[in-house]
Design goal:
Blueprint (H helix, E strand, L loop, with lengths): L12 E7 L2 H16 L5 E6 L5 H9 L3 E4 L7 H6 L2 H7 L29 E5 L3 E3 L13 E4 L11 E8 L3 H11 L10 H8 L4 E2 L6 E2 H6 L11 E3 L17 H12 L18
């Protein structure tokens, strides 16, 4: 007789993010506070590499993080060179947005380490996201669920964005990933995102509002709706980057991120004004 399925207790669930340098620790601090304000009982785990300074990690612990140090997956020198910042940007330039100087594409593959975490259910969130309302329902979604990579048009719905996704950690899955990741000649155009799309070709779609990219504010303002937005994602340009070239156009979103980061009062999300929109 099969054993009954174990009910998922709070300790079986975790929100997980990845921090690979001091800059992304800044983003993770805002993310952690946003999660705490939703009232979730799930653990909040920060996977981090050895490159993150102790002072930055201490700030994350102060905001409720459980720290897990991770390494990048073991990959060949040829793989590492093919996925260096220079190689990735030369091979497939980022024409829709501008990656900050502290972005290192190879670090993205450390995200795969979450499949070795001791949790039954995980919701992964990039460190440049904010959670605006409780999203614990995502723990009941199957592996692998992610929202589409919506930048500017319907065509974007064909690809996933790996800034928010659901997973079921399992060392066997991690081992299978390693076997495929560094296969001879393997090149993953958009690093972890392209790899996960290939590894889970029948990925399940989350609503776009579970990973609402800031480029929707700029390019598809008619799609933006604060009443529906659960997670906003500051992909490409970062709200804490003083060199952000789109700071003026994204000022309302940056102000909201700043309120979460600085510990200020959070405005009524539903009542926030939307983006400029000629056709709305």
């Amino acid at each position: 007789m099969p054993a009954p399925e174990r009910a998922a207790a709070p300790r079986d669930r975790a929100y997980v993010t990845l921090v690979t340098n001091a800059d992304f620790a800044i983003g993770a601090g805002a993310l952690l506070r946003s999660l705490a304000l939703t009232g979730t009982s799930a653990d909040r785990v920060v996977m981090h590499t050895a490159a993150v300074p102790d002072a930055a990690l201490a700030g994350l612990v102060a905001r409720g993080a459980q720290l897990v140090e991770v390494d990048l997956p073991p990959t060949s020198d040829a793989f590492n060179e093919a996925h260096s910042r220079r190689a990735v940007h030369e091979r497939a330039p980022f024409t829709k947005g501008e990656k900050p100087a502290f972005h290192t594409p190879l670090d993205n593959f450390a995200k795969l380490r979450l499949w070795r975490l001791p949790y039954a259910r995980v919701v992964f969130l990039d460190a440049d996201t904010l959670v605006l309302r409780n999203i614990d329902r995502l723990f009941s979604y199957p592996e692998f669920s992610a929202a589409p990579n919506v930048y500017e048009s319907l065509v974007d719905f064909r690809r996933l964005n790996s800034g928010v996704f659901t997973a079921r950690p399992d060392p066997a899955t991690f081992d299978a990933m390693l076997a495929r990741l560094d296969a001879p000649g393997a090149i993953w155009r958009r690093t972890d995102q392209t790899f996960l799309e290939a590894f889970f070709p029948r990925w399940h779609g989350l609503p776009v509002y579970d990973n609402l990219l800031q480029y929707v504010w700029l390019n598809l303002p008619e799609l933006w709706d604060w009443r529906l937005a659960n997670v906003i994602h500051f992909q490409d340009e970062k709200p804490w980057d003083p060199a952000n070239p789109k700071a003026d156009r994204l000022a309302p979103l940056i102000a909201l991120w700043r309120a979460f980061h600085d510990g200020d009062a959070i405005p009524d999300i539903d009542a926030l004004p939307g983006p400029p929109c000629a056709s709305c």
